[in-house]
Fold ApaG domain-containing protein.
Amino acid sequence: MVEQITKGIKISVQTFFDGILYDRYQVRYAFGYKVTIENQSNDSVQLKSRFWKIKDALNKTETVEGEGVIGKKPVIKPGEKHTYQSGCLLNTPFGAMSGYYNMINFTSTRKFRVQIPSFKLSAPFALN
């Protein structure tokens, strides 16, 4: 698990290998990740959008951005957490992801960015 705190918002990420898929005669490696967003600040916040950079072992990079996470824009009160699970497909059994969430502080009405720590994706069979 990797963790990082930005402006009182703690991001924790756990990853797992989800299997191999065959898509149009191409092997794809499925990975999942579980993200916990914990509000350790004194103010309620809302996650408005996300940005991900997904890189495989061949240095192919894909960016993903959009509103909310899995169709939600959670409001997280002080001391509360929001957890969700998602995934990605890679062309290689190794890769990495990083990114950020755009959030808003309800007390100050200020927008701010919360870093998502970089984390590795690796298929267990490919490790020494």
